[in-house]
Amino acid sequence: MTAAESTRPVAAKRLTRKQKRLVLIGAAGAVLCLAAGLVLFALRDTIVFFYGPTEIAEKGVAPGTRMRLGGLVEKGSVERGPGQRVAFSITDSRTTIKVSYEGLLPDLFREGQGVVTEGVFQGAGQFRADSVLAKHDETYMPREVADTLKKQGHWQPDAADAKTQQSTPPQSTPTPQAGPAPQARP
Description:
Oligomer: single chain
Mean pLDDT: 78
Distance between the termini: 107 Å
């Protein structure tokens, strides 16, 4: 081997345009998958529509955490203060959390009814609500509240089904409406 041959550069294998595009698309796809995974990991506890009082107690939620709290308004717990200040308790029959709220309550807010409140958990069984959502008619209960009550054995399906059956008219299959019969032309 001569000195001239040893200084000659070795031919490097170059990528074609198509291969470069595929590498770029693959890298972009990997970055997007990683970003989506990180977002889902960060949101894993906040994707839930709301937490029940027992779930909050079991999870050991830190004070100052913003969340939604749902359950039934405990009977005899509504206390109206000066102005629009209201305090009440939300329960799932196992655990109760005191809620303080300042503002107008929905017209359908009542003791014993399902509600979802949004606000800040203050610790020690206290919750400061920014908004209160109540059921909109006598047969409605948020699905999550009903599921929680079913899990804990406090759901009364016969009463709820009877109300639903009374309030919904029987469904019939629609019959096609016939228009005027076509007339024969002379």
